[in-house]
Amino acid sequence: MRKELYDISGMSCSACSARIEKVVGKLPGVQQLSVNLLKNSMTITYDETQLQPDKITAKIAALGFGAALHQQQQQCQMQPEPAEDEAFALRQRFIYSLCFTLPLFYLAMGRMYGWPLPQIFLGDANALVNALTQMLLALPVLVLGRSYFQHGFANLLHKAPNMDSLIALGSSASFFYGLYAIYRMAWLLGHGQSEAAAHFSHQLYFESAAMILTLITLGKFLEARAKKKTSAAITALMQLTPKTALVERHGLQGEIPLEEVINGDILIVKAGAAVPTDGIITEGNGSLDESAITGESLPVDKLAGDKVIGGTINKNGYFKMQVTAVGDNTALAKIISLVDEATSSKAPIARLADKISGIFVPVVMTVAVAAGIYWLLAGAETEFAFTAAISVLVISCPCALGLATPTAIMVGTGKGASAGILIKSAAALETAHSIDTVILDKTGTVTLGQPQITDIMACSVSEKELLATAAALEKLSEHALGAPIVAAAAEKQLTLPQASDYRMLLGQGIAAVINGRTCYGGNQQLMNHAGIDISSLHEQALQLAQEGKTPLFFADDKKLLGLIAVADTVKSTSTAAIRQLQTMGLQVIMVTGDNQITASAIGRSTGISRVISGVLPEEKEKIVRQLQQQGHKVAMVGDGINDAPALTRADVSIAIGAGTDIAMEAADIILMKSDLQDVPKAISLSKAVIKNIRENLFWAFFYNAVGIPVAAGLFYSSFGLQLNPMLAAAAMSFSSVSVVSNALRLRNFKFS
Q1: What is the distance between the alpha carbons of residues 575 and 336, in angstroms, rounded to a whole number?
Q2: Do the beta carbons of residue 541 and residue 563 sit within 8 Å?
Q3: How many CA atoms lie within 13 A of 134 on its CB side?
Q4: Which of the residue ranges 52-61, 435-444, 467-476, 710-719 would you say has the lowest mean pLDDT?
Q5: What is the DSSP letter of 158?
Q6: The dihedral formed by the CA atoms of 451, 457, 462 and 468, expressed in degrees to the nearest 10
Q7: Alpha carbon 399 to its chain's center
Q8: Are 410 and 742 in contact (CB under 8 A)?
Q9: Are 408 and 700 in contact (CB under 8 A)?
Q10: How far apart are CA 168 and CA 427, in angstroms?
């Protein structure tokens, strides 16, 4: 299978994207297809043994659109924003169009309302001069807006009418009706019928032809300018990477373009500089601001051996790093790619709008013709019937329908990315709002995933002596429970006694000779075997075990030295996160492979009432499936590795794990900060985005439901309501801008 991104030109509304999806989707070998109107792009997955790129572009070209494979950019360098170029071009076109439209409008309306005009344009005798001047002023506007006619009529010929088709029909009908009126005036004046000619001077419609194009261009300009803001989060991410890097090669230092950096290079990062690309610190240290990548506000201290991410800022310190990834393989590039992919994908709710808009334009054209014929048959003047038909064409452009979903999704995913929440698809973003059950893995999700010392209880020696002896024993062991004891002794800078004759006692613990005496470290069974009395700490050990902790006894050959309890501790934010999920009305279940005592203790401490323990990875998937069969919408939160089957089965999969490659592959949503509190944040963001989309779709449908009948003159007989083409064009443009503006409100969304 091959997945590619195409740039599409010539799309103007969701009818265009729906047409491309329908036709290209029928090509042999196409597996998945999504056309993004907002970004003028198409993502397609196909079997390359059945389909070639040239056939795809040819099929799109046959529909009247342009298509070309998207060119990948290297090193996340900032490239000119297409929406920015589009906004500039539309701004220029609008200004030039306005220069001709304003005098045309004044000339056309001036005779009607008695505005001051030069004598040459006044009176029935000068009606033809006035008409020809209006035509000459309208022509440049039509030339400036020629793209509407090129795309509109091309799509009409391909039996795929779109928004441009409606505009082209409305504007050209107005213009050609004006030409007809000029010829009628000339003929009537030539035959001495000046009074009849004067009547046609009021039915020119040149100002409508020009005003439609000018107002549509204004709406398109405002729309393109708003589009730029929707991708602000991605743009900010792309600007993080520096253009150059300080490299050390063959003992010499020098600054080179980032494109020339290769894997294995040694880079130097000074205080205040941005990390050029991903790597591992080989020398020195730094305090890195990773807020743009993970959303974590506090700087993170990094030492030799620690990984660093390209685009982060070295606030303090100096270090050398070895490059491990460049270009599209860096974490930042993958984040940008994920966000970009999410905005290019399509949520199920968007397909409703696409399906409707695909048949919307032909229906509108039929309604426009029917409205004109009805009013002619009803005895209305030709001008009135013509106005009704053109107004229906112009006001019905389905821009708002096409923009309703992608704008909200783009802003929403960008907002999530800026907070360290990466949403990989629009479908996941939509599904997340309907989740009613959240399954949590324990280790690494609710807990830190690595043992920590929780309690130290000394008997016949001081705590420092107990810890030093325990660390001397555990230093010789590679057991996971011993690692935090050794780390704690190192942190307190304790001097460890020398241990020799190390022995591992299977299932019990370890033993070694320290200062000429045999010392032991392990469980109660080991102490009993060595004849050590532990009655003084027996009750405390039982209590610790009930709390999910592992008590380790330490003794010499004569007496008990003390007890050190170790446990995989709960993350500081887990309890608050679980409480938030429960407050949102969600059922929270913890599923773990750990034993019942430990799992129950973690459940009690975090407020999780339902805990399922002793579960294998494949059994987690079964639990998810059973819940789904009961009608629940399930989100699975795990590390993306051991929980892969359950993550795949869940309606929404959420990976805790700082954006590792495996997590990125396994999950729909990735929490870069590995913080469980981001789960309710992600669900809240989903609810806000879906609410915004529904608002957009409601107003888009409501607008057309009201606008079309008014434009067709349905309320004229009862209330005298009718729209002229100029007002219809202004209203159509306003609807698109209002939808985009509503989506932009998501940028102000506050994570609770």
Answers
A1: 31
A2: yes
A3: 33
A4: 710-719
A5: T
A6: -20
A7: 21
A8: no
A9: no
A10: 35
Nearest to 167 by CA among 686, 740, 733, 596: 733
Distance CA 80, CA 66 (A): 20
* Alpha-carbon gap, residue 485 to 466, rounded angstroms: 11
CA distance 439 to 602: 15
Confidence of residue 663 (pLDDT cuts 50, 70, 90): very low
Report the alpha-carbon distance of residue 580 to residue 726 in Å, rounded. Answer: 52
Contacts of 718 (CB under 8 A, 6+ apart): none
Cα angle 10, 99, 211; round to 5: 55
CA–CA dist 338, 227 (Å, integer): 19
Render pLDDT for 214-249 as a digit per residue (tens, 0 to 9). 877 876 776 666 556 555 555 666 677 788 899 998
Strand partners, 360: none
The answer for residues whose C-beta is within 8 angstroms of residue 749's C-beta and 6 or more apart is 412, 415, 685, 688
Mapping DSSP to helix (H, G, I), strand (E, B) and coil, where does residue 421 land? strand
pLDDT attached to residue 579: 94
Instruction: Tell me the C-alpha distance between 157 and 142, whole Å.
Output: 20
First to last CA, the chain: 41
- The residues, ordered by sequence, that sit 6+ positions from 707 with a Cβ below 8 Å of its Cβ are 395, 396, 723, 728, 731, 732
Distance between CA 25 and CA 104 in Å, rounded? 46
Residues 248, 251, 257, CA angle at the centre, nearest 5°?
A: 25
Q: How far, in Å, CA of 508 to CA of 526, rounded?
A: 5
Q: Are 705 and 681 in contact (CB under 8 A)?
A: no
pLDDT over 80 (residue 295): no
Q: What gap in Å lies between CA 96 and CA 139, rounded to an integer?
A: 12
Rounded CA gap, 295 and 302, in Å?
17
Angle, helices 146-157 vs 163-190, to 10°: value is 110
Q: What angle do CA 399, 405, 409 make, to 5 degrees?
A: 135
Query: Which residues have C-beta within 8 Å of that of residue 299, sequence separation ≥ 6?
Result: 287, 288, 289, 290, 315, 316
What gap in Å lies between CA 219 and CA 62, rounded to an integer?
28
Q: Give per-residue pLDDT as tens, 670-703.
A: 888 888 999 999 999 989 988 888 888 787 777 7
Q: Would you tell me the crossing angle of helices 206-230 and 725-744 to the nearest 10 degrees?
A: 0
Residues annotated as part of the active site: 441
d(CA 145, CA 483): 72
For 86-145, how does the pLDDT look when each residue is reduced to its tens digit (9 = 90+)?
A: 778 888 999 999 999 889 888 877 766 677 878 787 777 778 888 899 899 999 999 998
Greater confidence (674 vs 15) lies with 674
- Alpha carbons 659 and 300: distance in angstroms, whole number: 16
Asked whether 575 and 677 are in contact (CB, 8 A), the reply is no
Query: Angle 399-418/206-230 helices, nearest 10 degrees?
Result: 20
Could you give the CA distance from residue 310 to residue 326 in angstroms, rounded to a whole number? 9
Mean pLDDT of 315-322: 90
Is 490 within 8 Å of 588 (Cβ atoms)?
no
Of 90, 29, 31, nearest to 216 by C-alpha is: 90
pLDDT tens per residue, range 354-388:
566 557 777 878 888 898 899 889 888 777 887 78
Integer-rounded Cα radius of gyration of the chain: 35
pTM value is: 0.63
Please state the three-class secondary structure of 246-298 as a single string: EEEECCEEEEEEHHHCCCCCEEEECCCCECCCEEEEEEEEEEEECHHHHCCCC
